[in-house]
Write a structure and sequence with these properties.
Strand order of the largest sheet: 1-2-3-4-5
Shape: globular
Distance between the termini: 34 Å
Order of helices and strands: EHHEEEHEHHEE
Number of helices: 5
Structural class: alpha+beta
Length: 178
Amino acid sequence: MIRSATQDDIPEIRTMIRELAAYERAVEQARATEEQLGEALFGEHPAAFALIAEDDGTGEVMGYALWFPRFSTWTGTRGMHLEDLYVRPHARGAGHGKALLAALAATCRRNGYDRFEWWVLAWNTPTIDFYTSLGVELLDEWKVCRLSGDPLRELAAQAPPVRVPAADAREERSCDPL
């Protein structure tokens, strides 16, 4: 069964995030706290959304998918970015991953999203094979860019002031989304 995550799922989601990070050989980078996840998924302005895959017989959590909306300037439409898709090792091959992806594809269609995109590690051949079996197009010509840590702080320190006129007055307001 696939269902929307609830606040009660936060500890299990955090555990699975760490399991995924261990599989991806980067467990030290998985630092999100339960409080951060709670705010991101269920706060006043959710940053992301999650689905849970459960075993139909036992109700055991088998995996999760976490996604957030994105926007394409080329199509002028929203799309979906899948941040995490994880199925626990003992549950792989039982259809949970495909069911999560199908539920997300249905969400895309329901919301009028033109694109459903995510990343996969180049060495993760079993997952790449699974994705291509579903008709996923791999975009080899694109490289993921990431700015974090000291380089992010250093570049931010060079930022000029950004002014955005208010709609009903000539006051300045922040362009930050929150």
